[in-house]
Design brief:
two-stranded parallel ribbon; 236 residues; single chain; mainly alpha; 12 helices
Length: 236
């Protein structure tokens, strides 16, 4: 992945301070109109998508509930705008005792430890159920995140939501860029190669997006996302 950024405490970044370099750059770069337009697109598209995919949503919910015997929606704490934690919603794609399964799998296959530490992912993850692999390949596991968008916790386009340990370990001084915008359902990482990219490249893409996003750019990323989902490029 390359060298990691120097660790930084996200709680030391003061987003309300008008003298903050990141805060002042954001204010001068993105107008109120741009921010309101981005939010309006988020709400309209999320409502239309949920309304048009309600049967798909119900089908996946029933399948997950039947195959796992557990609540179909999985809530996981992620870092959001200005470092505030929120519950990121997904359809459950893993077994219930995923932590124990991962620990046992890495103990039996120590050569995979570096892959896990580098990407926080495994290409052949034993925690993922058979139906879970299908909804991950098709990105259907992320349908509940449209509710996160409606609640204002996420945007359609932005950096992928990460957990606190990832932010501290990999983002370093670039954490302030990640936390200056809302995490997104899709973003430059997804359309730029997804899991085929290293984590260092992902961090750079997130930082660049936070500094340079535009409404038109978001629409382009949404269009490219449709192609990526249909071709399943970089997904596993």
């Amino acid at each position: 992945m390359g060298e990691k950024e120097e660790a930084v405490d996200r709680f030391e970044i003061n987003f309300s301070d008008p003298g903050s370099s990141q805060n002042s750059r954001r204010s001068s770069t993105h107008s109120v109109w741009e921010k309101k337009s981005k939010r309006a697109i988020d709400v309209v598209v999320a409502l239309l998508f949920l309304a048009s995919h309600c049967l798909v949503y119900l089908f996946v919910w029933l399948c997950v509930r039947y195959t796992t015997g557990t609540p179909a929606i999985y809530r996981h704490r992620r870092v959001g705008l200005e470092g505030k934690d929120f519950d990121c919603l997904k359809f459950r794609s893993m077994v219930v005792n995923s932590a124990e399964v991962l620990k046992h799998h890495l103990a039996e296959n120590p050569e995979l430890q570096s892959e896990w530490e580098r990407d926080f992912k495994l290409r052949d993850d034993p925690r993922v159920t058979k139906f879970g692999r299908f909804i991950r390949k098709t990105s259907l596991d992320e349908l509940p995140q449209f509710w996160n968008v409606l609640r204002g916790e996420m945007s359609l386009v932005g950096p992928r939501p990460v957990v606190d340990s990832e932010l501290r370990q990999f983002y370093g001084t670039k954490a302030k860029y990640y936390m200056s915008v809302k995490p997104g359902i899709t973003g430059p990482w997804q359309v730029g190669g997804r899991n085929d990219l290293g984590y260092g490249e992902r961090v750079k893409l997130d930082a660049d997006y936070a500094l340079n996003w535009t409404v038109v750019g978001d629409l382009v990323i949404l269009a490219k996302t449709a192609v990526v989902v249909l071709t399943r490029r970089g997904s596993y």
